[in-house]
Amino acid sequence: MLDGVPVKYVSWSREKNLKGIIKGTGYLCGCKDCKFTKALNAYEFERHAGCKTKHPNNHIYFENGKTIYAVVQELKSSPQEMLFEAIQNVTGSPINQKNFRIWKASYQAATRELQRIYGKDEVIVPS
């Protein structure tokens, strides 16, 4: 659902940075060799920026200045009934609405199945 959202790797020193675009579970790398044609995982994307850390998602930023890691933490702490709204707002960038609707429908179907199995009071269904 975040396909096409721009990101940037920024080193701690702020001396090194590299533009990228989210593609599936990776990043289209904007280095001079890849030119946004090669999808890399977070560690590879970081290497292409000329850096190496144990936690690259602490250095990959959305346009609103939040890191991938910070967004994940924010979503983890969002109340379940507010999750869909939070996903659409937390990155500061437009998300892929078609993929979001597919994911949302799948999430709601799984939640209904959990309610059927465990009882309605045990699982909250966001609207």
Task: Describe the overall structure.
GO terms for molecular function: chromatin binding; histone binding; RNA polymerase II transcription regulatory region sequence-specific DNA binding. There is one protein chain. With 127 residues, this protein is α+β, with helices and mostly antiparallel strands. The protein has one domain (6-109). It is 36% helix and 17% strand. The chain contains four helices and five strands. The radius of gyration is 17 Å and the shape is elongated. The mean pLDDT is 87.
Overall pLDDT: 87
Structural class: alpha+beta
Q: Rg from C-alpha positions?
A: 17 Å
Helix proportion: 25-40%
Largest sheet geometry: 5 strands, antiparallel
Morphology call:
elongated
- Major β-sheet strand ordering: 4-3-2-1-5
Number of E-type strands: 5
Number of discrete helical segments:
4
- Portion of residues in beta strands equals 15-25%
- Taken together, the total number of domains comes to 1
- SSE run: EEEEHEHHH
Low-pLDDT ranges:
none
Q: What separation lies between the terminal Cα atoms?
A: 18 Å
Which characteristics define this entry?
127 residues; alpha+beta; 5-stranded antiparallel beta sheet; 4 helices; histone binding; RNA polymerase II transcription regulatory region sequence-specific DNA binding; chromatin binding; TDBD
